[in-house]
Design goal:
Layout: H1 2-10, H2 12-37, E1 45-58, E2 64-67, E3 72-80, H3 81-90, E4 94-98, E5 105-110, E6 112-114, E7 121-125, E8 128-142, E9 144-146, E10 157-158, E11 162-164, E12 167-173, H4 174-177, E13 182-186, E14 197-206, E15 216-218, E16 221-226, E17 228-229, E18 232-242, E19 249-256, E20 260-265, H5 267-270, E21 276-281, E22 289-294, E23 301-304, E24 308-331, E25 337-343, E26 348-356, H6 357-361, E27 369-373, E28 380-385, E29 387-389, E30 395-398, E31 402-409
Parallel strand pairs: 1-4, 9-13, 18-21, 24-27
Antiparallel strand pairs: 1-3, 2-8, 3-7, 4-6, 5-8, 8-12, 10-17, 11-16, 12-15, 13-14, 14-16, 18-20, 19-24, 20-23, 22-24, 24-26, 25-31, 26-30, 27-29, 28-31
């Protein structure tokens, strides 16, 4: 029994019912006591007005929609004083409209009341209402977002708006649904806006004149995300080599998968940036490889189109080789003059060449031409720089960079 009592006490509906019973007992007790002291009071007639009584509508909700029904009515009652007072206090009656047997169209119907004592005189205001019954129609429509871009901070733009769900079901009378022109969700924020907006928004259905229509929307709210994009600028990326390759390794090329990036930030910050340097350390590279290198974010930049860049380092094994005794050719000797190479005495120098192993091994002295140009020189002894003409992608170093020549006129003793 104790367990049953505990369960009943924990039940909120039991508690509410018990409270109502106690209230009635107290009222009846007070009424009996009052009438015992004043018997004439029991037969006194009085009237009362009960306002804001909800109106219930009974109709085929699966197939129809009803319009033009007022939300509340006013009930005027008259009769026995005690009965009037208890009715006014408890409001345990129902005002309703019965449309269960009404077909589609406009109808003038009478408001009815149920659950009120027959000993009371009752008048409902309004007595009649004109209602519109329409066939129930449900359609699915996309939601459009209304957002005032004038609220954006200078230079900022909006990205692709995301709406979840992107469409809603709109239910209403056939004639009302035919008037639907726009389904929108309004986003309201304070200026200036400079960051992404994430907000719930109520869905409103409008006609072509932007009047709100009386329809049911499911769901009534949508989740809206509006990406706010800061000013941007496209700048080139430049690879900055750090360190030196190991000995015997030659750098042939550096390639990147992207040549420029888009950076985002305040306008004055972007104006100061002309390129982005990508530091790449090559000290441990001994063979061709591709490195995924983070792109540093310049100070003040809030975002960048690429977080990393692929840098291809192309290298090859190198070698050094010396080609000995390459003759020096004289060009530019004028008619009537002679020339003699004084140093080196044999008119030959050694050439040390460096480059990719396969290339260096395939070369010999015939692949290089060493010249000294004396076109503008006068008779006498001169020190002239040696010029080297040879294959590309090969580095070279002469055993001596200059020669000493003696220019003289013909028949003049040397």
């Amino acid at each position: 029994m104790d367990k049953l009592a505990n369960k009943l006490m924990e039940n909120k509906w039991f508690i509410r019912g018990l409270a109502l019973v106690l209230a009635l007992l107290l009222y009846i007790t007070a009424y009996i006591d009052e009438n015992a002291r004043n018997p004439s009071q029991a037969s006194t007639t009085q009237s009362a007005t009960i306002e804001d009584v909800p109106i219930e509508v009974y109709y085929d909700e699966e197939n129809y929609v009803v319009y033009n029904v007022p939300e509340t009515a006013t009930v005027h009652i008259a009769g026995n004083n005690a009965l009037v007072q208890s009715t006014k206090t408890l409001r345990d009656f129902t005002v309703f409209i019965d449309l269960m047997n009404v077909t589609e169209g406009t109808h003038r119907v009478e408001l009815q009341i149920r659950g009120i004592s027959e000993r009371l005189s009752v008048r409902i205001e309004p007595q009649f209402v004109t209602v519109i019954v329409q066939e129930k129609v449900t359609i699915e429509l996309p939601v459009e977002v209304e957002f005032n871009e004038a609220l954006l901070e200078e230079g900022y733009t909006i990205g692709d708006i995301q709406i979840e769900p992107h469409a809603v079901k709109v239910t209403g009378g056939k004639d009302v649904i035919s008037q639907v022109s726009l389904v929108k969700a309004v986003i309201e924020v304070e200026a200036p806006v400079n960051e992404t907006i994430k907000q719930k928004a109520f869905v409103t259905v409008l006609d072509k004149n932007l009047n709100k229509l009386d329809v049911l929307v499911d769901p009534g709210e949508v989740h809206v995300t509006i990406p706010i994009i800061p000013p941007s600028k496209t700048v080139p990326v430049e690879v900055k080599i750090e360190g030196e390759l190991p000995e015997g390794i030659i750098l042939q090329a550096i390639n990147t998968n992207i040549q420029e990036v888009e950076i985002y930030g305040k306008k004055n910050v972007l104006e100061e940036i002309s390129e982005i340097e990508i530091p790449v350390d090559i000290r441990d590279i001994e063979e061709s490889t591709v490195l995924s290198v983070p792109i540093p974010l310049p100070r003040g930049v809030t975002a960048i189109s690429h977080e990393t860049i692929d840098v291809e380092i192309v290298v090859a094994r190198g070698m050094t080789r010396t080609l000995e005794g390459i003759p020096i050719q004289i060009i530019g000797l004028k008619e009537g003059y002679t020339v003699e190479i004084k140093d080196p005495e044999n008119g030959e120098v050694d050439l040390t060449i460096s480059g990719i192993s396969e290339t260096i091994e395939s070369l010999n002295s015939t692949n290089f031409t060493l010249t000294v140009d004396i076109t503008n020189l006068t008779p006498g002894e001169h020190e002239v720089e040696i010029k080297v003409d040879g294959p590309e992608d090969v580095e070279w170093e002469l055993s001596q960079r200059t020669v000493v020549v003696l220019i003289a006129e013909v028949n003049e003793e040397l």
